[in-house]
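To whoever is on call:

I kicked off a structure prediction for a single chain this morning and the downstream step that reads the tokens threw a length-mismatch warning. I double-checked the sequence; it's 256 residues and nothing unusual in it as far as I can see. Pasting both halves so you can look.
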Amino acid sequence: MKAIIVCGGLGSRLDKEGTIKPKSLIKIGRKTIIEHLIKIFSFSVNEIILCTGHKYFMFEKYFKKKKNFRLISKKKHLVCYSARYLNKEIKINLFFTGIKSGTGGRLKKTIKKFQIKENFFFTYGDGLSDIDLEKLLKFHVKSKKLATVTAVVPPSKYGKLEIKNNLVLSFNNQRDMTSKINGGFFVLSPKINKFIKSDLEYWEDKPMQKLIKINQLNAFEHKGFWKSLDTLKDKKDFDKILKTQKKIPWLITYEK
């Protein structure tokens, strides 16, 4: 089983650092967020495909310096490494999927290039979670659906006002547990490829909407840790977590 991680996005809301490097290569503590993600998936898979786009050459430059990464092969648009994680070898593929490709386009190209014939994990290169991937996979297989998305409760950034006739009836600064968003961490069948029509298409738009219409998009609810790297504040929050907590929250599930 493989894991696909899309890493082609800009980090335009991450101040200067986000303009000079891909968002997935921004560091959380001493490691890049993509390294944290690779470790999460290394508990469950032996092969990971990183779909690169914006400043794609920086990934090769970065991994070339990593002692636990060994170059296996290098071809046009594809560089393969063997990396040591958890006392086992993980194959890491850097697959350049185009500068302007959408997340759906990157998926489509990857499924075709690697001739994927079975279920695979899929996520974005900017979110971390302590989700149990084995439970997610079992949930997906049992459902017999084409796609499963992880539903998470987003961190509350602002207090919620309830207003009627211009009067505030209530103010709640706590998390709204009824509101859920796409937390990434999908399990997908390669059959979803037929729902992606263009390289410029985003997986979150027409493909997911089509799956919803035919009742083929399942939701796996995750109530544990989840956080994405979108802004400079998010980066500072991640760094604070690493400095103040004894255990890394997105690895708690795997390092029990």
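Update from on-call: the warning came from a stale cache, not from the record. Cleared it. Sanity check on the structure: Residues 2-251 form a domain with the Spore Coat Polysaccharide Biosynthesis Protein SpsA; Chain A fold (CATH 3.90.550.10).
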